[in-house]
Write a structure and sequence with these properties.
- The two termini are about 20 Å apart.
- Helices cover about 50% and strands about 20% of the residues.
- It has a 5-stranded parallel β-sheet, with helices on both faces.
- Residues about 130 have low confidence and may be disordered.
- The protein is globular and about 35 Å long.
- It has helices spanning about 10-25, 35-45, 60-70, 90-95, 110-130, and strands at about 5-10, 30, 50-55, 80-85, 100-105.
- The protein has about 130 residues and is α/β, with parallel strands linked by helices.
- It has 5 helices and 5 strands, in the order βαβαβαβαβα.
- The chain has one domain (about 5-130): 3-Layer(aba) Sandwich (Rossmann fold), CATH 3.40.50.
Length: about 130
């Protein structure tokens, strides 16, 4: 079963780069340009993990994260915030919004895959064990 990874970022470059890195690593990648677009994609495709840029127009990353975490269908979905600022304030705000982790830009393929491994592979293993 292919793991579905969602990337929400208003930067076309970041979306394309991240999609290329993760597709090459064997993941199915869904993208959205902002929180509004993301919510419909999340509802339709139910990604296993979501990466959200903090600085976006209309709905920022914190608001988008809160929307996801306040939805009973998606509140268990891991959310990783992507930020070009490495501030304690940003990390704290991310935690208040319900995010599971914070990764600084520019990020590496390894950092993304480590987050996916940490949150998703662990959950998939539990599901396999629980199904017996």
């Amino acid at each position: 079963m292919s793991i579905k990874v969602m990337v929400i970022d208003d930067s076309n470059t970041i979306r394309k780069t991240t999609e290329a890195l993760l597709t090459k690593a064997g993941y199915q990648v869904l993208t959205a340009t902002d929180g509004f677009e993301a919510m419909s994609v999340i509802t339709d495709h139910r990604p296993d993990i979501i990466f959200i840029d903090i600085m976006m127009p209309r709905l920022d990353g914190y608001q988008t994260c809160s929307l996801i975490k306040n939805n009973r269908h998606f509140k268990q979905t891991p959310v990783v915030m992507l930020s070009s600022k490495d501030g304690l304030f940003d990390r704290a705000r991310g935690r208040v919004a319900g995010s599971d982790q914070h990764i600084n830009k520019p990020f590496t393929q390894d950092e993304l895959i480590q987050a996916i491994t940490k949150y998703v592979h662990r959950n998939h293993e539990h599901e396999r064990v629980d199904s017996h």
